[in-house]
User: Which sequence fits this backbone?
């Protein structure tokens, strides 16, 4: 019996020494690391961030084990830096066992304070992200180093993802993926190095080493979260031969169950006849009516109740899950004889879809494409009706599935580049012996502008709608008095393609006119409303991502009083443009004027033909954006005639 126990212990010992995390440890005698002058001026800098994902085939049993080790060393130089690093959150999602947690602080004078493990607390459901182990770092002061090292045993999962880029600089970043003899793959995104194969004792794996990782920062016209450096991996059981194509195919088969019904639900068939009275209507009209009906009568519920995917339950209770609601659309579209393709993708601001590496996180958004109309139904967007693709999806790749369960990957683009545009016509006069300015304005909003405006007026609370009136009648004019305000075509149901949302208004303002002796300064630029600015002083990190291509066309007629003449009109002439290699305009702001007697006519054309611009084009793009802001500051001087 003792001999058997000894053999088992030897086997366990052999297995233990083959596991990397059991051999890995921090330095026995820690010392502060040397930093450059620039690094020492940061609020905080991570000297090391090391991540180890290790898959293990146990000696006994056939259930794969997964261990994750995290080791970080951060130098903190001020209160902001201390606040960033002195509280540690460890997610308990899928954690089977905490192998070890330890932390220490090294002060500038060499004092070491170790973590008191009694201070580790468990907090349930932190901001709906699940359970966490939380502890505060003791002994941290300015110019200290905070070191944390822990290993978790987790539920086996074939897939994983880790975001590497943070809000602070990282001096050295390591990622180790240890899969041994198991079939495993790992891929780095937006990294300036690649994974290389190496050995870890008796096991094999891949490592990624990155030096001087810059922090990700929030920037306008960008998708910073989905632009962060990250890794994704796959690891399957022994002798498993799984391809990405097989994984995508399996997902498509499972997710699209019930989305191509052979027989339309009888209750939905009746509903379809009441919605679509003209069976000869085109697919755009039918799909729009169906979309409006579903969003008016059904509610999407975010929970795991299986009934919310059952078509009988959904029809009876008018409640469905994200997937269940697509079944309702499918039955209605089948009944109406409308061709459709379910589409699976992700929010471009959260994750950039990669069709060449299967990652479950990519499967977050569901759409329905109507090919004959070249338009999309977005089931979970109650503010949208059948339209061009919403901004949070535009530019991402998606899986398009036909009724034979065949699928293809396509980048989701906008068919009509002039879909979204704003047209404004203003007539400006000066009343009561130059006491105030009167502005009569007619506005036409198309595409996403119209969709968003309609949604706001129909879905927002009353107070917000009142504030929205300020936006529609000239934002940034603080003392304005609204004399007239009317909106047309505000209903969500609009069967005419891209019917404009119309606003007619009249306002007065005293602040736009400033006395200067016998003359007056007219702040004409302010009539176009508050404009975006890009006066970024730091180096740009992200490429440019606009919400969607759009265009603005303004005509501003200023009626100069007969007894006055104007000067300073040169401030109205602005032209900034970004050209491609062939000299074609990619975006432009251009303003100019004509003076005919006492009638001053100002025209503005601003457009962005594309929604994505390379980071190398940032300066040119920024000049165009800032040109609109510069016009907003334009003023003319009106002098009395001699």
Assistant:
């Amino acid at each position: 019996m003792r001999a058997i126990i000894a053999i088992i212990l030897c086997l366990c010992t052999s297995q233990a020494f083959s596991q990397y995390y059991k051999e890995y440890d921090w330095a026995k005698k820690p010392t502060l690391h040397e930093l450059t002058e620039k690094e020492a001026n940061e609020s905080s800098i991570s000297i090391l961030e090391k991540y180890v994902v290790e898959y293990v085939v146990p000696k006994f049993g056939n259930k794969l084990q997964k261990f994750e080790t995290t080791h970080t060393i951060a130098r903190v130089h001020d209160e902001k830096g201390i606040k960033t690093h002195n509280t540690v959150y460890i997610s308990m999602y899928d954690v089977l066992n905490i192998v070890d947690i330890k932390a220490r602080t090294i002060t500038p004078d060499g004092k070491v304070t170790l973590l008191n493990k009694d201070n580790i607390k468990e907090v349930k459901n932190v901001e709906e992200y699940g359970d966490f182990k939380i502890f505060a770092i003791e002994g941290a002061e300015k110019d200290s180093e905070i070191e944390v090292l822990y290993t978790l045993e987790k539920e086996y999962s074939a897939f994983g993802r880790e975001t590497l880029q943070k809000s602070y600089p990282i001096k050295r970043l390591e990622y180790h993926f240890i899969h041994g003899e198991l079939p495993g793959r790992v891929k780095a995104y937006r990294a300036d190095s690649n994974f290389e194969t190496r050995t870890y004792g008796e096991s094999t794996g891949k490592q990624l080493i990155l030096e001087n990782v810059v922090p990700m920062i929030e920037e306008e016209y960008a998708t910073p979260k989905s632009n962060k450096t990250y890794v994704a991996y796959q690891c399957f059981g022994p002798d498993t031969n799984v391809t990405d194509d097989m994984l995508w195919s399996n997902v498509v088969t499972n997710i699209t169950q019930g989305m191509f019904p052979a027989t339309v639900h009888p209750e939905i068939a009746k509903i379809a006849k009441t919605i679509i009275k003209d069976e000869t209507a085109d697919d755009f009209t039918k799909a729009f009516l169906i979309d409006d009906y579903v969003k008016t009568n059904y509610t999407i519920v975010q929970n795991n109740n299986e009934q919310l995917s059952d078509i009988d339950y959904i029809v009876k209770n008018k409640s469905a899950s994200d997937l269940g609601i697509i079944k309702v659309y499918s039955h209605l579209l089948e009944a109406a004889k409308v061709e459709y393709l379910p589409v699976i993708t992700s929010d471009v601001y959260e994750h950039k879809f990669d069709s060449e590496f299967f990652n479950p996180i990519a499967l977050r958004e569901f759409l329905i494409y109507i090919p004959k109309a070249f338009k999309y139904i977005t089931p979970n967007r109650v503010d949208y009706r059948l339209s061009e693709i919403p901004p949070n999806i535009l530019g991402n790749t998606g899986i398009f599935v036909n009724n034979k369960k065949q699928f293809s990957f396509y980048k989701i683009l906008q068919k009509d580049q002039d879909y979204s545009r704003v047209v404004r016509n203003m007539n400006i006069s000066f009343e009561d012996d130059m006491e105030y300015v009167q502005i009569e304005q007619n506005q036409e909003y198309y595409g996403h502008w119209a969709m968003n405006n309609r949604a706001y007026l129909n879905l927002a609370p009353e107070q917000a709608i009142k504030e929205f009136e300020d936006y529609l009648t000239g934002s940034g004019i603080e003392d304005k008095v609204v004399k007239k305000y009317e909106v047309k075509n505000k209903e969500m149901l609009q069967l005419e393609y891209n019917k404009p949302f119309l606003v007619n208004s009249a306002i007065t303002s005293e602040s736009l006119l400033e006395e200067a002796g016998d003359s007056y300064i007219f702040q004409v630029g302010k009539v176009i409303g508050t404009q975006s600015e890009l006066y970024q002083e730091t180096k740009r990190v992200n490429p440019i991502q606009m919400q969607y291509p759009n265009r603005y066309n303004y005509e501003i007629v200023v009626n100069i009083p007969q007894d006055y003449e104007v000067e300073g009109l040169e401030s109205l002439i602005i032209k900034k443009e970004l050209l491609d290699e062939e000299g074609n305009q990619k975006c432009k702001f251009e303003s100019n004027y004509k003076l005919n007697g006492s009638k001053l006519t100002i025209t503005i054309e601003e457009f962005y033909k594309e929604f994505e611009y390379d980071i190398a084009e940032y300066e040119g793009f920024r000049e165009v954006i800032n040109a609109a802001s510069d016009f907003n500051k334009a003023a003319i001087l009106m002098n009395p005639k001699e």
In short: The longest helix spans residues 2-17.
